[in-house]
Structures are given as C-alpha cells and as structure tokens.
C-alpha cells in the first residue's frame, strides 16, 4: 500500500484509499475541471471536499500542497517513475491527466499544441474575467458606486464569449469533432457565468448561436453531470 504520510495534507484529510489518486477540491468552475476530467477518463480517485467558505485552503495542511491556497490540487500515488506526485493549478492537472492516460488530448503534435493554447486561453482570460464580473455583478462589488470596473469586466466577458462563438462556428467542440481538455476547461466557467453569476442577460448569452449549443451538448454528457457535483456536499 502506498504511504502518503509524507504529505501533511493527509493528516487533515486522511486517505481511505492511498493507492488511488487523491483529489482536494470543491465544485467551483476551477474545481470541476478536474472532477469532470477524472470522470471522463475513468481514472479511479478519492475526493476530499475543501470548504472554501471556512477558509480551509488557508490551513497549513492545504498550503503544504498548494502554497497559493487555491483548489483544486491532487496527489497521484502513481506519478512519474512510480513515485507520488503532488500537483496544483487546474490547467496543469488537466494536462498531466491527459498525458498520463493518453485521453482527451490529441496525439498529433500540431493539434496537441492547438488544444493546449485553448486551455491557456481559458486560464489567462475566461477564468479571471468571468470571475471578476461575478464579483462586481453579484457580490460585494455591487456596492461600489463607480460602475466602470463592472462595465470593463462585463464588456470583456462578452468579448471573450464572442471569441468562443467564432471558434465554434462549424465545430461541435473547441477542437472540432473531438471533445478535449479545452472543452473541459471552459464548461464550468460558462455555466457559472449564466447561472450562479446571473450574468446571462448582461453578456447577451441568448444572442449567441454556437456557445449555447456547445454548453448544452457538454452538460448532457454523463461524466460532466457527475463531475459537476464532485466533491459532493456532506
């Protein structure tokens, strides 16, 4: 049996099955990237729910795994060379799991890098911009009298949806007929934007043709449906 005791996080969130990949996460747009990925590829894992509202990401145990204090993070007991691998940052985890299993990432070098560029696009643009719009539209940012920050993030979020809209013209998925980690990286964020963030109307979502269809196709995938609720609420 694999010994994960060297990782302090396992003291607070013990591994019942240390031979399985350990997922430390919450069902946020970033968190569900990894749970959806794990469900899609069928890799056995053990999920640990991290309570963001209770600031559990800032505990010494969690920070020992991700010093940036953000979910998701993993420990793969069967990492490169058969040694346990701790890893944080959702984009890095998607790439790692794709390469580990040979799934959801094209093997053709050109298409592989094309897929990765869209994952980086999500990490650098969609996540930060949609998240800021959510803050200024739904949360404490609404109390700020100066509406220029809100308008900046609203306009930029709408523009980014337009980028995805253009990319999906004539394509079922971001990479065409092939569902990949590029799609997985975006599903939770687009869903959150029009749902939890209540920004559907202000970004003109229903005026789009391709993005709504793409999201609908993604959300009916059984693995996506499961992954959106992992780790489950206790």
From TrEMBL:
Keywords linked to the UniProt accession: Transferase
Entry similarity comment: Belongs to the GST superfamily.
Pfam families, per database record: GST_C, GST_N
Residues of the GST N-terminal domain: 18-105
MF GO annotations: transferase activity
Originating organism: Devosia geojensis
InterPro entries found in the cross-reference section: Glutathione-S-Trfase_C-like, Glutathione-S-Trfase_C_sf, Glutathione_S-Trfase, Glutathione_S-Trfase_N, GST_C, Thioredoxin-like_sf
Protein name (Swiss-Prot/TrEMBL): Glutathione S-transferase
All copies of domain GST C-terminal, residue ranges: 108-234
Matching SUPFAM superfamilies: GST C-terminal domain-like, Thioredoxin-like
């Amino acid at each position: 049996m694999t010994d994960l005791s060297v990782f302090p996080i396992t003291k607070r969130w013990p591994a019942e099955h240390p031979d399985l990949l350990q997922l430390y996460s919450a069902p946020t747009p970033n968190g569900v990237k990894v749970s959806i990925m794990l469900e899609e590829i069928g890799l056995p894992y053990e999920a640990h729910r991290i309570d963001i509202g209770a600031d559990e990401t800032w505990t010494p145990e969690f920070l020992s795994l991700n010093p940036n204090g953000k979910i998701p993070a993993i420990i793969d007991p069967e990492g490169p060379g058969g040694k346990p691998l701790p890893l944080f940052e959702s984009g890095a985890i998607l790439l790692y799991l794709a390469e580990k299993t040979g799934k959801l990432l094209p093997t053709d070098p050109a298409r592989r890098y094309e897929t990765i560029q869209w994952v980086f696009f999500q990490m650098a643009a969609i996540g930060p911009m949609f998240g800021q719009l959510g803050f200024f539209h739904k949360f404490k940012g609404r109390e700020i009298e100066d509406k220029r920050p809100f308008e900046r993030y609203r306009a930029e979020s709408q523009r980014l949806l337009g980028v995805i809209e253009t990319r999906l013209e004539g394509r079922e998925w971001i990479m065409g007929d092939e569902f990949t980690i590029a799609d997985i990286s975006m599903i939770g964020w687009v869903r959150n934007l029009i749902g939890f963030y209540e920004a559907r109307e202000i970004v003109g979502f229903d005026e789009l043709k391709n993005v709504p269809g793409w999201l609908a196709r993604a959300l009916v995938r059984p693995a996506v449906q499961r992954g959106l609720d992992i780790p489950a609420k206790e």
